[in-house]
Amino acid sequence: MRARSAADLRAAFDRAFSEPPRAQRGPSIDLLAVRLRGAPFALPLSGVSGLFADRPLTRLPTAAPDFLGLASSRGIVVPVYDLGALLGYPVEGAPRWLIVAASTAVGLAFDAFDGALRLPQDAITPQGPRERTHMHVRDLVRPSAADAPLRPLIDLDSVITAVRERARQDAVSSPRE
After folding, report:
1. Distance between CA 44 and CA 36 in Å, rounded?
2. Structural domains for the chain
3. Which of 32, 98, 108, 161 has minimal CB crowding within 10 Å?
4. CB neighbourhood size of 71 (10 A)
5. CA–CA separation, 42 vs 87, rounded Å?
6. What is the pTM assigned to this prediction?
7. Are 87 and 36 in contact (CB under 8 A)?
8. Contacts of 121 (CB under 8 A, 6+ apart)
9. How many angstroms separate the CA atoms of 118 and 128, rounded?
10. pLDDT tens figures, 32-86
11. Where are the alpha helices (DSSP H) in the chain?
């Protein structure tokens, strides 16, 4: 009986390579699960070109509390902003993690990285007007695990637009020598 079980297992293993791959049940989305000031959030992986831990920052004098300084990413110097502060949280110590946005060379720092998620597209639901508690968040991620926290999905394009607008305003209002 043992030889027959081994033969059955071998046949099932071989058959798995001869069958076409199983199609996904629908479109999926890849996300990064992050934490800002202890609260769970998600970032669309498609909007991220790099993820780094403990990246050294060069501080610059500024009145903008959400601007943390400059960091090097793959030979490019990027301005780094505190993502939590951009979403309305009070500024605290320097966050440990950093992403570089795919759309432009801007770094966004956050407190904790919980991992990567691949979820069906229908796990993303729009927020109702009563659920909106953070700027730059329009949707919620409902992970499939029952014990997984509901995660607001950060709109990276909205964050980058706000950073650009603030930089433009700072450039206009700062005195020139």
Report:
1. 15
2. 25-173 (2.40.50.180)
3. 161
4. 19
5. 13
6. 0.79
7. yes
8. 26, 27, 28, 29
9. 24
10. 999 999 999 999 999 999 999 999 999 998 888 899 999 998 889 999 999 999 9
11. 2-18, 83-86, 156-173
